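[scheduler] slot 2 assigned
[scheduler] job type: sequence-to-structure, two independent chains
[scheduler] chain ordering preserved from manifest
[runner] begin chain α
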Amino acid sequence: MRNTDAGRGLRHESVSMSRRTLVAGSLALAVVVAGALVAIFALRSSPVPPRAALVGETAVASMLRGVPQHGTALGSPTAPVTLLEFADPQCPYCGTWERDALPEIVAGYVRPGKLRIVFEGMAFLGVDSGTALRTALAAAAQNRFWNVIALLYENQGVENTGWVTDSLLHAIGGAVPGLDTTRMLADRNSTAVGDAVTASASLAQQTGVNATPSFALSRKGGPLQVVDAAGLTAALDAALAR
């Protein structure tokens, strides 16, 4: 688990997994125009990075196939219980949970319509966190958020080593059926994505979340209850039994 403080710049600290940027003269003008044309041509002709080899492509597609997505929400909007997941794309403990626990949660609770999961993205570990999170949130506009975030966790690298590369993002986009990768990458710096990042950080502060991954349960719009990852299944069963 990773510690974060949403109210003070989202600092972090490792804890045990067990808890969890007037031309003068015609000659000068011609030079400027020619330079601009060269720049435009170079931009249009710049090659797409080679597609990186991906891990988990088949498993992610199988886990999510047929499960409804809307924005950062996974599962039926009429599910009686909602689970908020607060996580950073770079957090190794978040990655472990996504790879090991999420498939069983989706199969046992989300797919049958019992549970809806909403991802609340944190980006406090470094530049790669922000790049990865914004890319996934851009895919949310196409209702492919969970495919992208799951593949990011499947291919997660060591924190702040520059592992969130253009080639990786192009590969992930190309591996998601129905996703317009060009649109996703263009939308990363949109106002909507920025607003989503801010909203999640604010909600984490309001909920008292100071670590990732963290979880909060709510039944049919009721109050949120922060639950420990180790007792998540029991908490889900208890919420469903009420």
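[runner] end chain α
[runner] begin chain β
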Amino acid sequence: MYHSRKIERASYESLAFRYIAANTHPDHDTIAYFRSRFAAEISALFVPVLLVARVSLNERFAADAPACALTAVEGACCETALTQMQHTLKTTAGRTLYALRKSTVEPAIGVIKHVMGFRQFSVRGLDRVDAEWSLVTLEYNVKWMNVLRMT
């Protein structure tokens, strides 16, 4: 749920939202202000969440992402990572793992769009759109980490 008015309504109707909001009912202006006020902090959470995912679910994510992408998250895509990935792709097991990307990495946008229901931005301006997209992708990553942990 992405719109502040719908979140406000859900704080009255949904048990899950009431639990998260500690049985309070923030109005839509407060929710919108919170998003606006903490936009930079929300955007800054993206990389730490990916780093937590890499540490806690290293085996699963390593099978799903190129070595360069993993080091790029930390800010340094190095020659060693590329060499390691090229070597891995020469093996049968490496090619099999890389083939899994077709069914696990590329559909992320489709999941965000069709499953999570995010089809358009509700804000204007590059900074605000960036903050909203960060919030959506954080939600996606946290849900995905939870699903992987449960399996």
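[runner] end chain β
[qc] chain β: Residues 38-150 form one domain.
[scheduler] slot 2 released
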